[in-house]
Design goal:
heterodimer, A: 477 residues, alpha+beta, Uridine Diphospho-n-acetylenolpyruvylglucosamine Reductase, domain 2, Uridine Diphospho-n-acetylenolpyruvylglucosamine Reductase, domain 3, Vanillyl-alcohol Oxidase, Chain A, domain 3, 3 domains, 18 helices, 18 strands, 18% strand, globular, B: alpha+beta, Alpha-Beta Plaits, five-stranded antiparallel beta sheet, binds flavin-adenine dinucleotide
């Protein structure tokens, strides 16, 4: 993955930049010593690293605006950063850029149970938003697996999803309003605790824009009352086709589970060795979870189990207690860790139409043989969001490149069958160059024109999302 | 002009000199009057792809909403956001199209729980003001590839491009439903009751209050949908939860409940009554005070949906009914052409947002030929 050449002239102006930043921020909020800027050299796509020119950690919207005005004036590129858990390189800096981290902005500003909303500073972590409303049995629905660490800022920028979004939607469906600072330093308010936007849906546009349109400093989020209970079932099948059919039949039967998770044999084996959850050794495993009161759960599971049985499962395990439920989820939740135990891995997240599942899994299996790299599949089957995990050895020369080529082929396959490159992780630098496989030149041009409106000088996170070649002219101007 | 295909539409726009008034079924003429050649999407019609097992449907923009509903009903599914039919309220005729629903981001009572049209919209194809054929999103449920222009196009009312194809996430229609009815509450108590219901774990899919109900008395309506035993269970729990608000009756008859929510959805209480119609989106707890302020300003009737967060008002003709200090926003949905030329139909935007909106229009429609002036 290529990054643009840093601007040497800008780098030479580092002392001036630092001086000016320290005029508007407390001393400890400006980080410029080389040993310290290293902390910001990468996100969770750790194969790519580059320390920024400097980093700032403002504590409110006004400070963010002051920083952006300085950078705008000096022409310094700015890379917004939440918790740095992006898997796509979204918060990877360049050597001539400033990291603007919102980690210190983690306050809850207002909890409003009557209007089912919460207002937070965006540096707050995802899980601690739910934590803030737990005592009244409310929760914030989008639940990325990284929820302990990732910030609402990154969730909004990536439009993150989670295991429960089949029922509750992703970030964009649970975001009511934002305060955002434009690259020019203007503070704008969009939305609020009311349900629909006035004028154009700028809220929808900003969500998922990967830190390229503005820096989001505060957010109003929808909170929901917790369901009375939840219970999973586990089912094993001896073919991916059959498991795919079960998913489709459940959906057609009118049940809406909160989650339908799918694991294939390589992944089942790896997690069994790692976590010992007692999963059957079979081709395909499904975990289906439903919510409600006990009686409601029984009613829904009745329908689901009937469908499951019709397709001759090799295993069908209902949970009878909280411990059994935890055990059913244990393997799924340790899947990434388990794969990481075996080797380095790259996690993809292309989405496909659910009906294409068996075909795509078969093709991935064939490609795995061609490339000589193992791959395990664990994903949100209800919505077709795949997570192939390709194993490689970072210490073996050429293995990373091979793995990236394999990954690119899988993503092209997703697009080919009517899906897309990324369902929840974002484009960042990782899928930037594949954008031409999903979009025609005009489709990319109109998206870049949107960035022109918000950030005419292309200073905000400029080397992301669009193929470098496509954005070159704009970045140079 | 009635193009039959995307490419023909593109050619028409490339060749165009004057402005276009872009319409689907022309049943929702909301916004400042546009003086231009009528450009209708009605001939680009038909369901392109429907996979009930994947909960996805793709249709050409001109497809009648009725046809889509029929196709979905045959598989026991529906558009979850319950789009309003504007014909009765606006006195229009014609066939509402799915493109029109998207262009105006039309939702109904279920929006409070399930989400709006924009939340179920997975992808769009459209032709912009330069005749470029563009696409964004797709037909899969999760997609964060590039900017979300799908949301931007929803509710842009033909000012950024002419929609040619739209794809949706759909949902199963639950087999059973019930409506709890409480009579005689004033607005504040009604919103309190709805707030309690919506803040419960019982998945309320509609919460509306009519200060003057079908039989003249105030009525508060709370809807539950789902499997039969589950609906019965939740009705029981909600009865207990809401007991302090007065006597509760429960309606489960499919026809009567459907008619009741259609009445709310389409604002039937204002049909064939003279006056302008304003629509307000506010924080639900601000609803009653807004209702009060509107009555003081002369509103003849007020109703509440979305637990108090959506307020409709029937008002004297020609009056500016935006109370000072309104938090949220107001839309003038029905008024004479003269009024719509004089009063901003959509809520005036702060300068910084105005600049962005205008900037977007300049990029998507540099010649200014698609519904110019309709939104500002
Ligand atoms: C183990 C693991 C599991 C994961 N599981 C999931 C999952 O289940 N679902 C999922 O969707 N993702 C998942 N992710 C990916 C990642 O956690 C999400 O993308 C997350 O939202 C990133 O949040 P962050 O705060 O760490 O953002 P960062 O990595 O700091 O930044 C992400 C992007 O947001 C931008 N940004 C940051 N702050 C701002 C701001 N204030 N204003 C504007 N833009 C900003 C950045 O420039 C960057 O482009 C996982 C990651 C890991 C490591």
């Amino acid at each position: 993955m290529q990054m643009p050449e840093p601007d040497a002239q800008l780098m030479a102006r580092k002392p001036e930049l630092v001086t000016r930043l320290r005029e508007v921020l407390p001393d400890d909020a400006v980080i410029f010593e080389e040993a310290e800027t290293r902390a910001y050299e990468c996100d969770a796509l750790t194969a790519y690293r580059c320390p920024p020119l400097a980093a700032v950690l403002p504590s409110n919207t006004e400070e963010v605006a002051a920083v952006l005005r300085i950078c705008h004036e000096m022409g310094v590129p700015v890379v917004p950063r939440g918790a740095g858990t992006s898997l796509a390189g979204g918060s990877l800096p360049t050597a001539d850029s400033l990291i603007l981290g919102v980690a210190r902005m983690n306050e809850v500003l207002d909890v409003d149970y009557d209007n089912r909303s919460i207002r937070v500073q965006t540096g707050r972590t995802n899980l601690s938003v739910s934590g803030a409303v737990e005592e009244e049995e409310f929760f914030y629905a989008p639940d990325p697996s990284s929820q302990l660490a990732c910030a609402i800022a990154g969730n909004i920028a990536m439009n993150s999803g989670g295991a429960h979004c089949l029922k509750y939607g992703v970030t964009t469906n649970n975001l009511l309003g934002v305060t955002m600072v434009t690259m020019q330093g203007d503070v704008i308010e969009i939305g609020g605790a009311h349900l629909d936007a006035a004028g154009y849906d700028l809220l929808g546009l900003i969500c998922g824009s990967e830190g390229q349109l503005g820096v989001v400093t505060e957010a109003t989020l929808r909170i929901l009352r917790k369901p009375e209970g939840a219970r999973p079932v586990l089912m094993g099948y001896d073919s991916n086709e059959v498991a795919g059919q079960v998913v489709s039949d459940i959906i057609k039967a009118g049940v809406l589970p909160v989650a339908i998770e799918f694991m294939d044999r390589p992944c089942i084996r790896a997690t069994e060795a790692f976590a010992g959850a007692g999963y059957p050794d079979c081709e395909a495993l499904l975990i289906v979870e439903v919510e409600g009161s006990d009686a409601e759960i029984d009613e829904q599971l009745g329908v689901i189990l009937q469908i499951a049985r019709k397709h001759n499962p090799v295993e069908l395990r209902e949970s009878g207690s909280a411990e059994e439920s935890a055990k059913i989820w244990l393997g799924r939740k340790s899947a990434f860790g388990a794969m990481g135990q075996i080797n380095d891995y790259m996690c993809l997240d292309g989405t496909i139409p659910v009906s294409q599942l068996p075909y795509v899994l078969r093709r991935i299996g064939e490609m795995s043989k061609e490339y000589g790299l193992d791959v395990g599949n664990v994903f949100h089957a209800g919505d077709g969001n795949m997570h192939p995990l390709i194993l490689f050895d970072a210490n073996k020369p050429g293995d990373l490149e091979l793995c990236e080529a394999f990954g690119a082929d899988i993503l092209r396959l997703c697009v080919e069958v009517g899906g897309c490159l990324t369902g929840e992780h974002g484009v960042g630098i990782e899928k930037r160059d594949l954008m031409v496989d999903q979009f025609a030149p005009d489709d990319l041009e109109i998206q870049m024109a949107v960035k022109d409106v918000f950030d005419p000088a292309w200073l905000l996170n400029p080397a992301k999302v669009f193929p470098l070649e496509a954005s070159a002219e704009r970045r140079a101007a | 002009m009635k193009p039959v295909s995307e490419s023909e539409l593109s050619e028409m726009i490339v060749a165009a000199e004057g402005p276009f008034r872009v319409v689907g079924g022309d049943t929702r003429p909301v916004g400042r009057v546009v003086d231009g050649d009528v450009l209708s999407t009605a001939q680009m019609s038909g369901v392109v792809d429907y996979e009930p097992g994947a909960l996805t449907l793709v249709a050409q923009a001109g497809t009648p909403v009725s046809e889509i509903k029929r196709r979905l009903a045959a598989e026991g599914q529906r558009l979850p956001f319950e789009p309003m039919d504007h014909r009765g309220l606006l006195g229009t005729s014609g066939e509402p199209t799915i493109g029109g629903v998207v262009a105006a981001n039309v939702s109904g009572p279920r929006r409070v729980q399930a989400g709006a049209c924009r939340d179920f919209l997975l992808g769009v194809r459209f032709v912009d003001g330069m005749g470029r054929v563009l696409k964004n999103g797709g037909r899969v449920m999760k997609n964060v590839t590039g900017y979300d222009l799908v949301k931007l196009m929803a509710g842009s009312r033909g000012t950024l491009g002419v929609l040619t194809e739209v794809s949706f996430k759909v949902l199963p229609t639950p087999p059973s439903r019930a409506v709890l009815l409480i009579e005689g509450l004033d607005d504040t108590r009604a919103v309190a009751a709805m707030t309690r219901a919506l803040g419960s774990p019982f998945e309320v899919t509609g919460a509306a209050h009519m200060p003057v109900g079908m039989d003249g008395d105030p009525v508060t309506m709370i809807r539950i949908e789902g499997f039969t035993d589950s609906v019965e269970y939740r009705v029981g729990r909600l009865r207990d939860l809401l007991s302090e608000f007065g006597a509760i009756t429960v309606e489960t008859d499919p026809e009567r409940t459907a008619a009741g929510w259609r009445w709310v959805r389409d604002v039937e209480a204002f049909h064939e009554r003279a006056g302008d119609v304003w629509r307000y989106s506010v924080k639900p707890s601000d609803g009653p005070a807004l209702g009060e302020a509107l009555r003081e300003m002369g509103a003849v009737a007020v109703l509440y949906d979305w637990g108090g967060g959506l307020v409709w008002a029937l008002t004297p003709q020609g009056a500016d009914m935006r109370p000072a200090g309104l938090r949220g926003h107001a839309t003038l949905v029905r008024a004479s052409e003269e009024t719509r030329a004089r009063l901003p139909v959509f809520h005036p935007e702060p300068l910084a947002i105005q600049k962005i909106s205008q900037g977007l229009r300049d990029r998507f429609d540099p010649k200014g030929i698609l519904n110019p002036g309709l939104m500002g």
